[in-house]
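Notes from the pairing session

We agreed to fold both candidates in a single pass and log them together. This is the raw record for the first candidate, unedited. Please don't reformat it; downstream parsing expects exactly this layout.

Candidate A
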Amino acid sequence: MSKQSIHSDQAPAAIGTYSQAIRVGDLVFLSGQIPLDPATMEVVAGDFEARARRVFDNLRAVAEAAGSDLDHVVKLTVFLTDLSNFATVNRVMQDYFTEPFPARAAVGVAALPKGVDVEADAILAV
C-alpha cells in the first residue's frame, strides 16, 4: 500500500502530527478541518454559519489539492459542540454539496481544538 500526502496552502496548515489529507488508491482521507483562516491561522470572526462555511471552504481546498472536489465526498463527519446548530449545518451544506449527498454522521462532542464549535472530516472517492 502506498500513501501520498496531500497539502494545500489554501487550507490551514496542520497544527499537529497529521497530514491535511492522505491518498491511498482511489480514496482520499481528509483530516478534520476547523474554522481557521489559512492566512492567519486564527478562528474566523462571525456567527456559527460563518464558521461552518470556513470549515467547508477548508475541506474544499484540500479536496482540490488532491485533484478532486466536494462532489466526490462519499462520507462526511461533522462534529458539533452544540447539536442545536445541526439545522444550520444542513443549510450550509446545500451550498457545498450536490445530490446525491454524501453519507454523513453528526456527532455531538464536549470540546474541539482551539475552542471551536464545529469540525468536519471527509472521505473522497476519486
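Candidate B (folded immediately after A)
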Amino acid sequence: MRHRSLLILTTVLTTGALTLTACGSRDDDSKSSGGGDTQTVVIGVDAPLTGDLSALGLGIKNSADLAVKTANKDKTVPGVKFELQALDDQAQPSVGQQNAQKFIGNKDLLGVVGPLNSGVSQSMQKPLNDATLTQVSPANTGTELTQGNNWKTGDKKRPFKTYFRTATTDAIQGAFAAKYLFDNAKVKDVYLIDDQKPYGAGLAASFKTTFTELGGKIVGTDHINPDDRDFNSVVTKVKRSGAKAVYYGGEYPAGAPLSQQLKDSVQIPLMGGDGMYSADFISLNKKAEGDIATSVGKPVEELDSAKKFIADYKTAGYKDAYEAYGGGTYDATWSIIEAVKAVVADNDGKLPDDARAKVLDAMSKVKFDGVTGPVSFDEYGDTTNTMMTAYQVTSGKWASKLSEAVK
C-alpha cells in the first residue's frame, strides 16, 4: 500500500489524459508519423516477468511476441503493423492495476493479453472494461471472472463484456482433477490445502465439491501462506489424517517445497492444478516423482495444430520455454489480431476512430483454428475448448496421462 496517494494522483491525471487521446484518429497518426498507409496496432501483455512465477510469465510474453512477429511477417492484416507492449505485474494485483492504466493510456493499443493470475485479473477487469479495451487471458481459471460471483448457484452473469480467455474455468478443472484422482488414481481419502488466493481457493473448492459427490472423503483441510517455505506443521496434520493424497490449490513456488516436505514424512502424492504444471515445480522439488497436475488443453507436443508453433518458437531462439500457457497465449494474441483484421476489412482497409469498440464487437465473432485447436468464445467470454489433461511426474518429467473434453 506504499505511495497510495501518489498512485491516486497519477491515476486521476492519466484518466484525464485518456479523455483527450484514447479516441484520436489513427488515420492522422499514421500520416503524421510518416508511416504512409501503414498503421500501428499495439497489443499489451501483462504477466509476471520477474519473481517466483517468471517462468510462466516469460513463456506468455514470448508466445505473444511470436504471434505478433508472425502476423507482421505474413502481413495478416494488410496496412497494419503490430507491436507488443509487455509489462511486468510481479504477480501483484496492485501492479496489474497500474499496468492496466498504462495500457489504456496508449492510444494505439487495442487489446491486452494476460494476466497469469486470476487475482491480478480481478484488479484489471474494471478499468479495461471502462476503457472498452479487450482483454484475453491464456491462464486465468477463476470461474467468477466470466460468470460472476453467484455462478455456483446457477446465477451466471457476465461481469465485464471486455474480458475473454482461452483457458477453461476452475469449475471444469477442479471437477476433472477430482474425477481423475478418484477414478484413475483410485484415491478415496484426500487432505485439502489451498493458498487462500482467488485461484487456489477456487480450485480447491471446485475439487472438493466433485470429489465428495463421487464418494471421496476429505479427511482434513488447511490453508497456507504462499510466501512460506516451511510446511512441516501442516505436513504433520496430513500424516495424522491418514490421507492417501494431498490436493493443493495454489502455484508451484509453494507447491514444490510442500510436496518435498510431505514426501520426507509420508509417501503420498501431491496433486494440483495448472499453477503447478511447470518444469520449475520439478527443478525445485527433489521428490516430485509421482506428483500429479492438471492443465488446460491438450499437450501442444501432441497436437498436429501446434507443430508450426513449436518449430517457430524454437527458430525464434527464445531462451525461456513456452511453458504451460504458450499455445493458449499464441491463440489469445491471435484472437485479437483476427478481430483487428475483421475491423480493418469492414472499414475499407483502415482502422476506424472507434477502433477499441469495434475490436470488442468483433471478438464475439472470432473463430479460427489455433495452436490449441478450434478457438472461439461463448456468451460469457469463456473458451469453447474445454479439453483438460492430467499429468504425472515420471522419471523427472511431466508425462501426460489422460486428456478429455469436460462437459
